[in-house]
Amino acid sequence: MPGPPVKNLDDLPFPDFSLVKGLDKSPLFLAPISTSRGCPFDCSFCSVTKIFGRQYRFRSPENIIRELIEKKHGEFFFCDDNFTAHPGRTRKLLNLMRRYNIGRWSCQVRCDVAKDEQLLRLMAKSGCKLVCIGFESVNHETLRAYDKKQTVEEIIGAIRSFRRRRIKIHGMFVLGSDADGQNTVWETLRFAVKQRIDTIQMMILTPFPGTRVYDELDGEKRIFTKDWQLYDGQHIVFNPKLISAKDLQASVLTAYGKFYALSRAIPLFLKFSFRNAFFRLMGYCIVRRWKKLNHGFYWLKNDQPVR
Questions:
Q1: Labelling 170: which of 124, 132, 135, 182 has CA 20 to 30 A away?
Q2: 51-62 burial, b for 16+ CB within 10 Å, e for fewer?
Q3: CA distance 226 to 224
Q4: Domains of the chain
């Protein structure tokens, strides 16, 4: 039986990310920092609230600064699910980061932070180079189904706000809701290209146990495998409503291939946009490697995975 959540995160030692298998081999060279737990939004597909609860709990800015100084790393990634959830605390932390000249960093945020111009300016001045944003979908019905509490118009506004601050965007989408059909994948790809999103992550809806999506799909007998190794957001494990499992898997892989094509990376090198070019090349390599390692699963037969 789990005990009650720790309310004062400053009482805990700094998280030891060296325990994460394979992190030391990551090509990104980012030091991960966790500064909070919990989320009150409870999106239907998300497991965060099932693990950390719906109440935000935060480390103090002073406690975080001590860890940042101790690690002496060139670039940090704040892996909180919503780094700017408490704007006042975030402002205090960013001002301390400027004072101690912490350096470059990136984080995960929601679209609503883009409405706070003062906070956006402070993020840019304190070294923020990239934000990972859970856009989730460009389909209005899907956003409602996910209980995301944001609109496509707000997504576009957030993209433009970050671009004005020269902060790069990693857009994250979740495909496969009951409102998503064959065209949704291509609409998402066209949206990403049109809005000039720097990099994208097109996750396939994954029914993690404990989430509302899992309860719904399991109750309807639409989950065709409970091999938990496949529950990683890139393997289809259930039968969607408006598109076959085979078509969704193949479409997402094809869309990835088009976005991260070499023909898109080379012009970035020629424009001296080396960071974006590097990420495009990395995406290209990841897609090729995924196809190679998952050949049996990728070629679904009769909407069931070939194992």
A1: 182
A2: ebeeebebbebe
A3: 7
A4: 9-298 (3.80.30.20)
